[in-house]
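User: Here's a chain of 208 residues. Predict its fold as tokens.
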Amino acid sequence: MNIILLGPPGSGKGTQSQKLVEKYKLSHISTGDILRSQIANKSDLGSKAKNYMEKGELVPDNLIIEMVLKTTESIESILLDGFPRTINQALSLEKEMNILEKEIDHVLYFDVPFEDLINRLSKRISCKNCSKTFSKDDKEYFCIDGCSFQDLYQREDDKPSAISKRMDTYKELTEPLLEFYKTKDLLKKINANASIVEVSLEIDKILQ
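Assistant: Prediction complete.
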């Protein structure tokens, strides 16, 4: 089974992807995690991507497509989180999947009002070590690898100035994907403004 998660920043894709990987034995491919790893390692790709991400802009297709497609070649069941984000990326993915004689089974769209997303993101803090995210409203912070409170920080792209830019970029470049996958009868809309448990149950009904 191959699944794509679509939705604006802060819509809960990361949280649900962890559950999907465990329950359906999928290989999680998160372009955000890969890029942040490249930035931390100060690679050429990471250096180029950093300038775009800190401004809340999408990393150009040519930097993303090759990286993701190479990763999918040897994987049986994939969960794509953060890719594709543009029509060009979607077409490149479709072409590669055809070559590999694979297909996308489900495209899940995490639907949340933008005003709620801005509030979520402005309160989001992340762990420098394991990338787990929390809200400033959380009463407890717990990372599976024992990271400490001192390891938590607010990413540059979660700060107010970048959030607005990220939403504008999303609307302009990513929303056309909804129509693209709708015409292929693959798109399923998820009420991502519900609780984590309710969202998980809604997803299970679709996949089962």
